[in-house]
Description:
The complex is a heterodimer of chains A (224) and B (626). Chain A is α+β, with helices and mostly antiparallel strands. Chain A has six helices and eleven strands. Chain A folds into two domains: 102 residues, Pseudouridine synthase I, catalytic domain, N-terminal subdomain (Alpha-Beta Plaits, 2-Layer Sandwich); 115 residues. Chain A starts with a strand and ends with a strand. The longest helix of chain A has 14 residues. In chain A, strands 1, 2, 3, 4, 5, 8, 9, 10 and 11 form a nine-stranded mixed sheet that branches. A two-stranded antiparallel ribbon of chain A has the order 6-7. By secondary structure, chain B is an alpha/beta fold. Chain B has three domains: 226 residues, no CATH class; 131 residues, Transcription Regulator spoIIAA (2-Layer Sandwich); 181 residues, 2-Layer Sandwich (Transcription Regulator spoIIAA). Chain B is built from 21 helices and 19 strands. In chain B, helix 9 packs parallel to helix 10 and helix 15 packs across helix 16. The model of chain B has no long low-confidence stretch (mean pLDDT 95).
Amino acid sequence: xxxxxxxxxxxxxxxxxxxxxxxxxxxxxxxxxxxxxxxxxxxxxxxxxxxxxxxxxxxxxxxxxxxxxxxxxxxxxxxxxxxxxxxxxxxxxxxxxxxxxxxxxxxxxxxxxxxxxxxxxxxxxxxxxxxxxxxxxxxxxxxxxxxxxxxxxxxxxxxxxxxxxxxxxxxxxxxxxxxxxxxxxxxxxxxxxxxxxxxxxxxxxxxxxxxxxxxxxxxxxxxx
Amino acid sequence: xxxxxxxxxxxxxxxxxxxxxxxxxxxxxxxxxxxxxxxxxxxxxxxxxxxxxxxxxxxxxxxxxxxxxxxxxxxxxxxxxxxxxxxxxxxxxxxxxxxxxxxxxxxxxxxxxxxxxxxxxxxxxxxxxxxxxxxxxxxxxxxxxxxxxxxxxxxxxxxxxxxxxxxxxxxxxxxxxxxxxxxxxxxxxxxxxxxxxxxxxxxxxxxxxxxxxxxxxxxxxxxxxxxxxxxxxxxxxxxxxxxxxxxxxxxxxxxxxxxxxxxxxxxxxxxxxxxxxxxxxxxxxxxxxxxxxxxxxxxxxxxxxxxxxxxxxxxxxxxxxxxxxxxxxxxxxxxxxxxxxxxxxxxxxxxxxxxxxxxxxxxxxxxxxxxxxxxxxxxxxxxxxxxxxxxxxxxxxxxxxxxxxxxxxxxxxxxxxxxxxxxxxxxxxxxxxxxxxxxxxxxxxxxxxxxxxxxxxxxxxxxxxxxxxxxxxxxxxxxxxxxxxxxxxxxxxxxxxxxxxxxxxxxxxxxxxxxxxxxxxxxxxxxxxxxxxxxxxxxxxxxxxxxxxxxxxxxxxxxxxxxxxxxxxxxxxxxxxxxxxxxxxxxxxxxxxxxxxxxxxxxxxxxxxxxxxxxxxxxxxxxxxx
Lengths: 224, 626
């Protein structure tokens, strides 16, 4: 049966890339003696799929992956067994058995929200908040987005579902669909570039708060 | 939570920041206030290489078992971070605590290959420790060298306070206890080193002086302190079963070279190949008990979650309990889909059957190491692998579905002729022909592929070839071209691919391997000119090395191209590695006579290692059994 697992990724493991996080969980599942299913064939691998890759350097409290298990201990036991073999910076937050025929995590992802804070606010002009809100208030924001095939023009506005300034930073709810994913850094870099405000290297601290799917009623809901 | 030594801005700027953050599964964390000795264990190369080394894992585990010690790891920062650290004056730190190495009591550096020597200086410089031991004050960590290259420590002796000669499991406790008592009694650095010189296996280079003849060879060694030993005897673990072994190896986040559980099944080798240093240094061969190995295999797999286990030894086929161990592993690895990898296995019916069970036949290739092309030259080097064995092994493999064969040879061996080099090409051709003969046309799913690789022979200390001349760069290259040409003349040449190792770096390795104390200044100068990561061909700067030799007035050929006289005193002669110089000389004579020496299990050759009263030396020999 298919089980979805939710985890957080904080300091210092935020420097571990997506592929290495996958390898980390493959080993963790063996250490925790989870009864995972393997693919058939010459080089069997664990049946596991991740929702949405997180960029190196970002932290998150809303990461997900699905696994196919032969048998499932009860939910608390599963979480405890995995947490017993985690390193500092990765915690298992939740787990759920998926209904028969549920789509996989990656296909389901529709949106993600982020909290972006500045490493160093000193370089910012006093009125940056007003200017950011005005930027967001435009009816459309046409930008060139790099894709695998080259560049194409998109309306950034369509990918930003919400933009607010609170919690000491900028809260962004963004499209995270596999073909239409918008990165929070891209939104803010576009803004600062258009406003002609120079940024230092690595200006933002980015935290993904939650990853969402689109329910049957069309509303966004967390993956678990 | 730990504070990282490097700021986010730096970690985001460098390649693979995971190299520098520690925090891996099974990394050992301790409370600084509860320990008395801080030990930094260093492999002077990049993280992925260093993390793949078994010896450090063993010592890390052993030292951390001591309650009063916290052993942490440190590796060479890669070139990108190196530049940032030097520019911004960021001191080198240990991975676990992220504290500067300078604050530690000991910095242990493993010496696995000569081409890491400049990286030792990189580690010292970044740690803000004076490069020369003579300039270190009471606040500096004690810098210890160990590992195979410490069997000729002289070229780098100025950079170390002491060397630990031999296997690390035995004398660290005594050394650490001495350190603690010296600290309590207020005995300083110099006093500690003088006392340490009397611990078995410990060599303190500053307490000895070397006097040279006019021709550059050694006249004598003089002790500068009372009561210190003239000869340093290697340390050796007598019982390799009742000893420490890491049951919880550190699991790196990023993919490293050896990304698997490593199970050392035995130490040493019975074979006695005359070019091989490890085969002499680790004598006598000592097997671990199979029950111990079964226990550790399961523990390590459970504690790491690795998907592969590899058996480690110099010659796995010689392990007497191999079938039992492999059956056990196959039975227990199946459920979690764990691969078993079997390097250094002789290719025969048994090993092919095992490989068939545990590996993907389509993906794997078979490896033979004949080392020399002709039987005559294989007799010279005492490599007991015959053409018949190679061909019948290859045939069995082809029949079993393998199509790829890797072959390793050496060029520039003593007594090598053009005929021997041509024989390399002919052997490759015969193996290819064996494929076409063994596999009928309709069953050939893919073409046979033979990859022949040659390295250049470098004479090493404590081998029968320590007296031999090494080829010049030009001779090496000529031999490689000759090999390439001979392969092209073969009927099956399209199935044979040929690679050869670089010649420049082999020459330098040869200089370091049999070098003396005068090389310290050359290494220092080369480092100051910008040489480091010499083991990485893209960073190896041959011109800078040449100018370093020239500026120091040292002729590199002195160390390589001359055949040494039998009565010459070698820089490493003050070390006792377990086998006697008389034995090595006998073997050198036998090599010249193309005469073979039987392996230790068949007959004792009186190498000297029997004095340890352990391992194969205590077994009943085959001729005694029958």
